[in-house]
Design goal:
This protein has 353 residues and is an alpha/beta fold. It is built from 14 helices and twelve strands. Helix content is 43%, strand content 19%. The strands form two sheets. It has a ten-stranded mixed beta sheet with strand order 2-1-3-12-11-4-5-10-8-9, sandwiched between helices. Strands 6-7 form a two-stranded antiparallel ribbon.
Length: 353
């Protein structure tokens, strides 16, 4: 298969973990006879510094001309520490989602048996947890009308029927392929936007009689994700709730450095780790590359390259079982492995498999 992939390393640890994801893709291409070509482009703080725009038009064209986008992370302390700045790296992330029409963020959450002890939760609660969170990505407060002065600020949480219907369709269809259980998360007891979500979900559930659909307020869902994670199969929710809920799931896996995701929609699909740019760690060779590498697996699986994706997953699992891990998930007394060393071990495993 031939694939053209846009590479967006971004800021902080982004370039370091991207190199490992790229090495894995190249190893897969060599092993299976695929042809992957790449175009690297600027996004985030590095793009602001270079051209004054966190998502330049040249980057957008590179994404539009590609079959897929492999993205790392954006963010820089210079911008985090100055809330008055109008142009921020995250502005580019939102612009990219909007311009590429990436309305569905798909984030799988699953445990690794050898890392259960790394979770702050009790092992008996999380063992066997395996669910997917589908977050609406281009609507809600992040994109609604905004206002701020020194005494007043507001963000508007706007959703339309077509926006809600299309993300619910993704969620119902995902549930059909899994354990046929969908949980719609909202705040319908307080928010008008949530009441519309629930109304439309109630209408649509009749089209999917084989899916068990239940409804949960976000505060209850935030608690039960941590206390009963095995209850869930597919969760669907709006943008702001999804942002918070999906970061919370790192308590189940034990590290955000283990969680990949995809963002799907109208144009080019995008694949990215869920963690941030961690600028404090840039250049130190300590960042966990596994989420980036697993994002590459999701990219391949999106195009039907399932055995290739599974080989990457097998390599990741083998690296964890062999304690080839970056410091934040290494066992006590285990050898030190950096970003490069973990990526190299996984690449070598793929080549030898």
């Amino acid at each position: 298969m031939k694939l053209k992939i846009a590479l967006l390393p971004g800021d902080g640890i982004g370039p370091e973990i991207m190199r490992q994801g790229l090495a894995v893709l190249n190893a897969i291409a060599e092993k299976y006879g695929h042809e992957f070509t790449y175009e690297e482009a600027l996004v985030g703080a590095c793009a602001i510094e270079a051209v004054g725009d966190p998502y330049p038009e040249a980057t957008h064209m590179a994404c539009m001309n590609a079959d897929a986008v492999l993205f790392a992370a954006v963010g820089d302390l210079k911008y985090d520490n100055n809330p008055t700045l109008k142009i921020r790296p995250e502005t580019g992330l939102l612009a990219m989602r909007k311009k590429l029409g990436l309305f569905a963020n798909v984030r799988p959450v699953a445990t690794f048996d050898c890392l259960l002890h790394k979770s702050p939760l009790k092992e008996e609660l999380i063992r066997g947890a395996d669910f997917v969170v589908i977050r609406e990505l281009t609507g809600g407060m992040y994109f609604g009308e905004k206002y701020q002065d020194d005494n007043k600020a507001f963000d508007t949480n706007v959703y339309t029927r077509p926006e809600i219907e299309r993300i619910l369709k993704v969620a119902f269809e995902m549930a059909i392929t899994r354990r046929k259980h969908l949980t719609v998360v909202d705040k319908a007891n307080v928010l008008a936007s949530s009441r519309l979500w629930r109304q439309i979900a109630k209408e649509m559930e009749k089209q999917y009689p084989n899916v068990t659909t239940d409804y949960m307020f976000i505060d209850n869902a935030a608690m039960r994700v941590l206390t009963e994670p095995r209850f869930f199969d597919v969760i669907v929710t709006e943008n702001t709730f999804g942002d918070i809920l999906t970061d919370e799931t790192s308590c189940i896996t034990g590290s955000m450095g283990l969680q990949p995701s995809s963002s799907l929609g109208e144009y080019t699909p995008l694949f990215e780790p869920v963690h941030g740019s961690w600028p404090q760690a840039a250049g130190q060779n300590i960042a966990n590359p596994l989420a980036q590498i697993l994002s590459a697996a999701m990219l391949l699986e999106h195009f039907g390259l399932n055995k290739e994706g599974q080989l990457i997953r097998d390599a990741v699992n083998a690296s964890l079982d062999a304690n080839i891990r970056t410091p934040e998930i290494q066992v006590e007394g285990g050898a030190h492995y950096g970003t490069k060393e973990v990526g190299q071990w996984i690449t070598d495993f793929i080549k030898k498999a």
